[in-house]
Protein: M18 family aminopeptidase
Organism: Kushneria sinocarnis
Amino acid sequence: MFQSPSNERLLRFLEQSPTAWHATASMSERLEAAGFERLEETDHWVLRPGGRYYCTRNDSALIAFQLPEAAPLALRIIGAHTDSPMLRIKREGVVQGRDWLQLGIEVYGGALLAPWFDRDLGIAGRVHVRTREGRLASRLLNMDRAVAVIPSLAIHLDREANQGRAINAQTQMAPILRQTTDKETPPSLEELVGQWLRHQQEADDFESVVDFELGFYDVQPPAQTGLEGELLSSARLDNLLSCFCGLEALIASDHRQGALLIVNDHEEIGSGTASGAQGTFLGDVLGRLAEYDAGHDGPFEEHRVRLIQRSRLISCDNAHARHPAWPDKHDAQHAPQLNGGPVIKVNSSQRYATNSATGALFRDICRQVDVPVQTFVSRADMPCGSTIGPLTATTTGLPTLDIGLAQWAMHSIRETSGAADPGYLIRALTAFCNREHLD
């Protein structure tokens, strides 16, 4: 039940994806291996019935889709996001004290800060360089070994440490890279990044570093844990777990129906960017697909409206599992369990986009393929988070459902989910991609 080839692929994907850029690159490789053709947003698209395509935006968001052999076009859409909370390195981040070289950080997203102390930290992200031909080009950097640490203060020096001490990210969380002296002239961050990039590539194929977006991450590899292997433990399960399940489902589908996978960036900071769910990425692609559909007959705008209303979106973002130490944080009747199957997320204020029509569709799909379903509704006295679901529904008009897999320790540097759940979700999403009727 807990051992499966898909879990082995999931663990590899998680280890290869320390940032949204790496996740997008890894997904692109999988899609090309599966026969999807890359499209550039700036090009004219020539699409054919039965074709399978993908495109990216900002190297950190991706859309992949397949077209049916026959019109009219209706899309089974799966949505997720590639980004996770992390510690981003400041542009002029080198901090040199009397004894140690450190890098200043800013916190990306709503991270749990305490788990970042005393971890083996690597550095990863995107670097823009000037090539020897004078052109600007991007490179992915992954220092996948322990190069930094944020040490805790010993309890002997802070007797109140276990009483809920506040953490100051500015003054207490600058990771330490190496020992130095106060007489040493510190290197610039561009020099350090250039050294790291040349070491990684084992080639001097660029002239200089121009700019970069880098952050720290935990280099401890993901693992299947528990006495029976019933748990998955990794960084960035929120929300690379959903990205992986959506990708697996699209690739495994029978290709007879129209289907689309979108993985946005910047969900953890509100989605208000060109590659986020409030941006135009999905709308732009839907417009092109409506134009393709309109090539059969009728006006474009009519086809765009009909395409949207014929389609359905399942927004996948992990859900809070009932914690054995804090069971009172959940409504007793809506407390998802690890390995209990996908969780339908409901909120009366539409912080989740689920309604009875989209919920019924997903429950029926799960019934057909024998996948258990759970429901999450927040306690009435606690605030509710949100996802890309309501944002995408608002910007496009797509009928939308919010689901996710249950997990513990959301937004920690290391999170835990159930080892049986990815298989359940892949099976349900594959059935969704194959489903003939969406009403």
About this structure: The two ends are 33 Å apart (CA to CA). The CA atoms of residues 153 and 184 lie 26 Å apart. Residues 86-218 form a domain with the Aminopeptidase i, Domain 2 fold (CATH 2.30.250.10).
